Amino acid sequence: MNSNQKFWTGLFLGAAAGAAIALFLSSEKGKEVLADAKDTAEKFGNDIKEKLQTLDKEMDVLVEKGKVVATEIENKVLESIV
Question: Which of 2, 6, 25, 67 could bridge across to 30 with cysteines, CB 3.0–4.6 Å?
Fold first, then answer.
């Protein structure tokens, strides 16, 4: 099979696959699958958003604790010099 035949075969198979997917997605079952996929993606996105917000808050707490520790160390070093 030469490259020209491969191209046309690929084009035909791609078009057939696209048509089959379009027919499936326009059916009731396809619409249900799409709705389920959207719901799942939305839930996943909300879960990620919540976890990132929690992580952000935890990081803020850790940064503040780090600042306190750094200040305490700085004060001890200054006291030991004086």
Answer: 25
Q: Which residues are within 8 A (CB) of 1 and not within 5 positions of it... i.e. 6 or more apart? A: 9
Alpha helices in 1-82 (DSSP H): 3-26, 28-81
pLDDT of 24: 87
* Separation CA 61–CA 58 (nearest Å): 5
Q: What is the pLDDT of residue 1?
A: 75
Which residue type, as a one-letter code, is found at position 12?
F
Cα separation, 2 vs 15, in Å, equals 20
* pTM: predicted TM-score of the whole model, two decimal places: 0.55
Q: Which residues of the chain have pLDDT under 70?
A: none
DSSP state letter for 27: S
